[in-house]
Amino acid sequence: MTASRRMHHALMKKKFLMACLCLAPTLACAGEPGTGFWGGVDVGAGSLKRSYSISGDVSDTNFAMSLRGGYAWNPQLLLGVELGGWLLEASDYNNDPSQGEAVETYLLFAQYYPSRSSPWFLKGGLGGARYWTNHAGEGTGSGSAAMLGAGRDFRVSDSWSLTAAADYSSGKLDGLTSPPGVTQNASYSALTFRIGFTYR
């Protein structure tokens, strides 16, 4: 390689390094969301166990979904509400209106990032739970709910992240009627894995 070509390559390397140094702060700022409104939607599956005061326990794996939203006054702390739950049986109003059963939760929600640049977070919520059913002879019940979990954001743009999380939920359902004609109390616990999108 001639001296002129070596000088040309050295100059190109310097220009490349300078460009990287100039872009680094811009990329860092783009990857660090600030304050403002936020929202998210998740889907997943949960291992849900229900313990009844009269009838036997039930454990199964169910489809899970949640909607989250609120406002972040601090870049590391998202506050808001989460509406979620587990589908026990899909509704079919056209062919069989007696089908349909679910456990729903309504939580005051917080999501905390240990540092402003961290993609990892802890989350938790407290609120209420409700069991509903379309089964003949059965009825709804309601009670308290709590949730703790952790997850990670994968930034896909300045405003959107792909979010993966796992959480443990527990709660009580009082006064539900199930099976038909049997009114009782129940408690539930669930380990749920979710994936979704977060806007902030």
Report what the structure shows.
With 200 residues, this protein is mainly beta. It has a single domain (37-199), classed as Beta Barrel (Porin). It is 14% helix and 62% strand. The protein contains one helix and eight strands. Strands 1-2-3-4-5-6-7-8 form an eight-stranded antiparallel β-barrel. The longest helix is centred in the first third of the chain and has 28 residues, at 3-30. The radius of gyration is 24 Å and the shape is elongated. Mean pLDDT is 87; it is low at 1-30.
Helix/strand order: HEEEEEEEE
Shape: elongated
Going across the major beta sheet, what is the strand order? 1-2-3-4-5-6-7-8
Radius of gyration: 24 Å
Short note summarizing the structure:
With 200 residues, the chain is mainly beta.
SSE map:
Layout (H helix, E strand, L loop, with lengths): L2 H28 L5 E17 L5 E17 L2 E13 L11 E12 L7 E14 L7 E15 L4 E18 L5 E17 L1
Antiparallel strand pairs: 1-2, 1-8, 2-3, 3-4, 4-5, 5-6, 6-7, 7-8
Supply database-style keywords.
200 residues, mainly beta, 8 strands, eight-stranded antiparallel β-barrel, 62% strand
